[in-house]
């Protein structure tokens, strides 16, 4: 849709001005079987960083030892902000040993507890308005696996204070989260190199 254009038939009767409505926080969900869910979320985070917003990234499935390209870039952007004031501050956390507030080593049996600990930390930060922009990467999985209560997540997102933006990625997004979201995109896979037995490549998968 062109910049600044809205469908006049869908303007809500909420008593808000156009400017006030434009400043409302956004909950976005990138789901589906296609590639690009996290990539799109980090693209949004890059825009937010450029606007001086504080960025908080929480990866709920990727190993704490897996160094993805986006992480390296955003850590550099965080350093650039700390040194020059350009952009916004950045925090990057990964489940398990990667959670900076919980350094205990985990096993397969601990994944559910680690995911729940991560969500509790995110909920605390939302309550305290710690960041302006949150990426909850692959967060749909611990919800769909029953590790994190979907109802609590939906309630927290619905009632969070301020203008904090939240982007959630992962396949099989629960309907409760889709219902509370403002922006939902479903990535559909048409073709993928891995279908032809090709492994992930540098610059494409990481």
TrEMBL record:
EC number(s) recorded for this UniProt protein: 2.5.1.17
Pfam families (UniProt xref): CobA_CobO_BtuR (PF02572)
Keyword DNA repair: no
Taxonomy, superkingdom: Bacteria
InterPro entries for the chain: CblAdoTrfase_CobA, P-loop_NTPase
CDD domains in the record: CobA_ACA
Alphabetical keyword list: Transferase
GO terms assigned for molecular function: ATP binding; corrinoid adenosyltransferase activity
Annotated GO biological process: cobalamin biosynthetic process
Enzyme class (EC, first level): transferase
Listed name of the protein: Cobalamin adenosyltransferase
Organism: Corynebacterium kroppenstedtii (strain DSM 44385 / JCM 11950 / CIP 105744 / CCUG 35717)
Lineage, broadest ranks: Bacteria, Bacillati, Actinomycetota, Actinomycetes, Mycobacteriales
Chain's gene name: cobO
